[in-house]
């Protein structure tokens, strides 16, 4: 199309009412040197549409820009050589979706930030269920503690239906994506480059797997290299897609802290795991906690408790990994049948029949209350047990009391022997979850 005028817009009955020509011109504008989301917004305000702005060219854009004469010359050269419709066709030929703000496919949470990307390139699919998304970020060189914790926490969260969002960098990001995929969960990867410039290059196979079980997303057009200045923009998208950001392990200058600060700017929650005060790998986590910019979390239960209080968070539908969320399998299953294969065993059952049908509930009826006790009784991996307990907690079937999980409802509460401090705490909290309130929660449909 180059310097030629865009064709007139077509009418569309659907909500996705942006014509191909307008969509293409938006792509071309956002690919133009010196133009970012805010400058783009000024151009649309000034000219009424991307088509009109593109037709008039950089000479008419100058009042909305603060650029030097060499920069303006660079923009004019791009405008003369670019063909918006050819750019759109090339992206679609790669199997990518080119999404703009008016589209139904554009993530709702991302629309709420002050400067959402006007154009998103999506490799894979973004689903309605991805609105329940949590960013999991951290260092590129995690410790053994950080690697193990990331795997366990992400598998449990992905197993309850949370979509895991990260930046597909080395270290924590990669571990988070892989852990979600291992339990059949969904994950979104946000790049600081074009979709054809996966960085680091060794993550290309991972990107292909993510595109099958979620989506790889970028605001940068094809051919854009992974330049350092692109990664803060990537981090704002990670934050914008997510209800909260979970900082697994971050040093004093970790890029994960940029994601955390964007979340704070967007009035989203930040959660952080503590670490040894003398360990520089956790200096960023501890700084966030010291400044009270993040909530301290110790395990999956703490994360879920904090997420419950996220402003405006809709109720999470109950997913059984391997059914409505996909058909992945866990590499931790070993020789045992995985807990999360197939439909949830309590689906459609009356309360009296649920404990008999679900292995975790049977173990709890027999007195097991901690993850370790349930794992020992069932011979199941901890990640699978945590995923089921988290799902049950969201459903109002169990609750965590003083380090133990208990079934809601007096008739389902196992006898628990408390000693020392636990005894005093249990006595102080006597009756919690019992009575009519507890029974109402138990009887709530799953």
Task: Walk across the major sheet and give the strand order.
Answer: 1-2-6-5-4-3-7-8-9
What is the 3D shape?
elongated
The major sheet is characterized as: 9 strands, mixed
> What do we call the CATH topology of the largest domain?
Rossmann fold
Spans of at least 5 consecutive residues with low confidence: 2-15, 318-356, 410-446
Which percent range fits the helix content?
Answer: 40-55%
List keywords for this structure.
disordered N terminus; 446 residues; Rossmann fold; alpha/beta; Arc Repressor Mutant, subunit A; single chain; two-stranded antiparallel ribbon; 11 strands
Report on the structure:
- The protein is of the alpha/beta class and 446 residues long.
- It has 3 domains: 1-93, no CATH class; 122-308, Rossmann fold, CATH 3.40.50; 351-443, Orthogonal Bundle (Arc Repressor Mutant, subunit A).
- Helix content is 42%, strand content 10%.
- It is built from 20 helices and 11 strands.
- It has helices at residues 20-31, 37-47, 50-56, 58-61, 69-81, 84-93, 108-111, 144-159, 172-182, 204-213, 230-240, 256-265, 283-290, 300-308, 351-357, 359-365, 371-378, 382-394, 420-428, 435-443, and strands at residues 97-100, 119-124, 133-137, 163-166, 187-190, 214-218, 244-247, 269-272, 295-296, 398-401, 404-407.
- The strands form 2 sheets. A 9-stranded mixed sheet has the order 1-2-6-5-4-3-7-8-9, with helices on both faces.
- Strand 7, helix 12 (256-265) and strand 8 (269-272) form a beta-alpha-beta unit.
- Helix 8 (144-159) packs parallel to helix 9 and helix 11 crosses helix 12.
- The radius of gyration is 25 Å and the shape is elongated.
- The chain starts with 19 loop residues before the first helix and ends with a helix.
- The model is unreliable at 2-15, 318-356 and 410-446 (pLDDT under 50).
